[in-house]
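Hello again, I could really use a second opinion on something today. Take your time with it, there's no hurry, and the full record follows here:

___
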Amino acid sequence: MNTRMALVADDAWVNGFLDYLQTERNASDHTRYHYLSDIAQFALGAWGDDAQPPFAWDEADRFMARRFLVELQKTGLAPASAGRKLSSLRSFYKYLLREEAAARNPFAGLALPRKGRRLPKVLSIAEMEKLLQAPAHLQAEATFSAEPVTRLFQKYALTRDTALLEVLYSSGMRVGELTALTDKDLDPYSGTIKVLGKGRKERLCLLGGPAQRALRRSLDLRDQWWTVTGRNPKLRPLFVNRLGTRLTSRSVERLLKKYLDLTGLSRAYSPHTFRHSFATHLLDAGADLRSVQEMLGHASLSTTQIYTHISMERLKEVYDQTHPRAG
């Protein structure tokens, strides 16, 4: 704790608030430290570095609170950090109101800085093609077990991995929706697959030719493996593990990391990256926003609009790299 913070901590109301955080809210020392740091920053900004406790907390008004916010923004502080500081001071003044040490909360209703929205990570079409082909390349180089049942599962696992990657990219579904799929959800004649999305809302996802072919090969080997192992499950998950039970979302994440390593792509990508890439590639190719919204199962068009920002960022990159007068 620096000297300035120690000075503010000597204020009776600040000290009482820190005790309240510890006894009534079970706040950690780390949390209490950050509250004190935020309160000290406001107090010393409002009354000066030479001010001594007790501080005139009841004199703080809306103007002082807004000035504090402006000063935070001038320093270039991240919106999340500025928001935390405002939240700390709002909580402190709630405590002062409860203890009748202040007549108003100058931070109540004060708008927090808008958090910058991070654009989702997206694979390029070339990167996606490389990733989709990774299980096949692994299969071409694989040494399979001499034991027939084990060999059959090993071959199935590689075709399964190709199929699940193809289905994720072809449909834009979430990984949890993928792992919940069973045979009855698949309509091989129309090339569609029924998905149970958020809010238990059903939607139909489309499967392209490569995804349909990969899925047929995967299911054929899965059924062969089930037959030789004597399995005949009542519910038939589309993608299964060595135990014959459905793959989990975590399992899919682990499989993806393996293929990211194999292809030299960033491990920061996740199964959800396929969904982001699906939407972005459609919009890049001219798909309309409403159609992409339907395919993703978004309740609100505003959720889908984030992908238009990604597409614009990609256009800017191309422009900056190729136009002779971009600089």
